[in-house]
Amino acid sequence: MSKLYFRYGAMNSGKTAALLQVAHNYEEKGMKVVVIKPSIDTKGDDKVTSRLGIERKVDVMLAPDEGIMEHMILDKPDAIIVDEAQFLTLDQVDELYAITKIYGVPVLAYGLRCDFQMKGFPGASRLLELADDIEELKTICRCGRKATQNIRLIDGEPTFEGSQVAIDGTANITYDSVCGECYLKLRRHHG
Amino acid sequence: MSKLYFRYGAMNSGKTAALLQVAHNYEEKGMKVVVIKPSIDTKGDDKVTSRLGIERKVDVMLAPDEGIMEHMILDKPDAIIVDEAQFLTLDQVDELYAITKIYGVPVLAYGLRCDFQMKGFPGASRLLELADDIEELKTICRCGRKATQNIRLIDGEPTFEGSQVAIDGTANITYDSVCGECYLKLRRHHG
Amino acid sequence: MSKLYFRYGAMNSGKTAALLQVAHNYEEKGMKVVVIKPSIDTKGDDKVTSRLGIERKVDVMLAPDEGIMEHMILDKPDAIIVDEAQFLTLDQVDELYAITKIYGVPVLAYGLRCDFQMKGFPGASRLLELADDIEELKTICRCGRKATQNIRLIDGEPTFEGSQVAIDGTANITYDSVCGECYLKLRRHHG
Amino acid sequence: MSKLYFRYGAMNSGKTAALLQVAHNYEEKGMKVVVIKPSIDTKGDDKVTSRLGIERKVDVMLAPDEGIMEHMILDKPDAIIVDEAQFLTLDQVDELYAITKIYGVPVLAYGLRCDFQMKGFPGASRLLELADDIEELKTICRCGRKATQNIRLIDGEPTFEGSQVAIDGTANITYDSVCGECYLKLRRHHG
């Protein structure tokens, strides 16, 4: 059985580096991967870029109304790898699940779970419901605990209002990852 | 930091036995637990019952509009344990998360992820979004693969229509756990 | 590929209840399991017994110089389940690994990692080196942290000298599970 | 409680990239890490190098008879990170465990489990016995299964004889990672 893998983690937990490593591992063995990024994520255009200074061209920039099977047929990959998977639509996640079961192609999806308001991204919530294998990529909060939540900063100040999607680096917005306790404390002070 | 743990698994994967073991482990060390069951689950009344033949009285039958803090204050538990956690409301999951962070009481929630139509139970989806620690309780499909999905049977026949909640044993309904491949095959034949 | 699974945990973490659940899950689907216990463990004779009050007859009491394949051939199991797997010999672990790969029969082994002196049991160390899938069964220390080490008590007093194997309940010996910090503190005071 | 983490994986599973990511995550939050490499590993001198094309200077090249505490005192790190941890001595692993418990400094160790003869590296076996948290870094076998074992190649030919330590790239030696089934098949043909 091929599996749908979901690797989730807070902002800056190393999701893209892990993704690049997996693509490298497949290709080093002479296998083919297709790297997909939902086109809703405009950061870095058609590249996936890790803060470690490594990057790779995306094979498919996937529009919200687009299916995945058509790309499968052209590319016949040994594995499908998805960056920023929280931006997948529910239908796309269901299609990826079916691909693992009916065509036997493993899918490795990397993404966030919740947005800066602790609301789940729809694509991530569906991945969590369906994935055959769920694993957390961990990072650290400034307080020393595991960071699990994402804080949105405007000009460096925590904010708890706004739309779900606002890409890092636009309109003075940045993100930081924090533990649940620090998140709740910051929200009491700034929210 | 106290954590919100979510232990998910298909029907008959041993969630209740695992829950009873954890309660036993705490009490053996002289600590106090509160066992909660959402009242929407009417099977077994105010008991949690494992197919291994062991059971335990539930401390709190939790109505959908009820909060958890009030029970906390009375009982001052060292841990909160929730059976059939997929039936929690979104607010109750958020409250449990806050309890782990603000009061430092660990919460261990056991439940299903998806219903017989592969749709997430709202309480489970929220737990997957927020839990600090997610782990699968595994069981086996008749084909030998890991069972991850739930099939609803009426008089032994797979059915793919009906309401999300229909408790095991009522109206000739039973459930079986299957792998994703067997689920999709059965749905093509019976759906 | 069938896998060699090792489920380790400190004393009283619920290893036997988990084992009984897995056996039940297989049998409920009409599959056959063989439950093995190394004969070095004399507690409970030919039974595996959980502190939750459930038990089961062992199919094979395995002597240290005995092979496993012969039992396989007679019983043609769908899975092999081993209790007290820390008492397996190195050769037996290697044989179990080969059985999973050559005959495609999954093996689920449950056991301790380290003895009361924090020294690895040889069978457990070999399982940790070879297992395709390693998972911890967790329990709680009196201090609230995760218990990972085992303390030997003689008449209730911690002791740090003695032979590796001394079965629970003989010669006034009992065991308790503690976290690493409590273990090291106790050893400074009593060791 | 600070933990001793052991992240194991076959050759080329991405252990060093994961290590570099963790170091980056700590430093991005303004925390200090000490990166240790046992001096027995002569590849890359005083650098840790990932096949993804990223590297970092090692802070401490650790000789087999050297202790770790002295480096701790000088550097007062927020975390200790160990590359090629399979080459640690038993005493060094025990010391790292004590450091996590007594001084509250987390230790993240990355390494192989078994050598090319499926024998455990002593440092790895001790880490598996003691680590508070064990996780596998996965990679793929040419056959599509998970690679868990390491094959030594001399001029591209599998070999099953020789000393445990022979660093990649010396004396025409290279390594490949394979699944357990492929390992056993290769050994029957070449062993």
Protein architecture, described:
- With 191 residues, chain A is of the alpha/beta class.
- Chain A folds into two domains: 4-138, P-loop containing nucleotide triphosphate hydrolases (Rossmann fold, 3-Layer(aba) Sandwich), CATH 3.40.50; 146-190, no CATH class.
- Chain A is built from five helices and 13 strands.
- The first copy, chain A, has helices at residues 15-28, 69-75, 90-103, 122-130, 180-190; strands at residues 4-8, 33-38, 47-50, 54-57, 60-62, 79-82, 107-111, 133-136, 139-140, 146-147, 149-154, 157-159, 173-178.
- In chain A, a hairpin with a 3-residue loop joins strand 3 (47-50) and strand 4.
- In chain A, helix 3 runs parallel beside helix 4 (122-130).
- The longest helix of chain A is centred in the first third of the chain and has 14 residues, at 15-28.
- Chain A is elongated.
- Chains in contact: A-B, A-D, B-C, C-D.
- Chains C and D meet through helix 3, helix 4 and helix 5 of C and helix 3, helix 4 and helix 5 of D.
Which residues of chain A sit in consecutive blocks of at least 5 with pLDDT less than 50?
none
Oligomer: homotetramer
- Tally of domains of chain A: 2
Relative strand content of chain A:
25-35%
The CATH H-level superfamily of the largest domain in chain A is P-loop containing nucleotide triphosphate hydrolases
CATH topology of the largest domain in chain A: Rossmann fold
What is the topology, as strand order, of the major beta sheet of chain A?
A: 5-2-6-7-1-8
The CATH architecture designation of the largest domain in chain A is 3-Layer(aba) Sandwich
Count of distinct strands of chain A: 13
Number of helices of chain A: 5
Question: What is the N-to-C succession of helices and strands of chain A?
Answer: EHEEEEHEHEHEEEEEEH
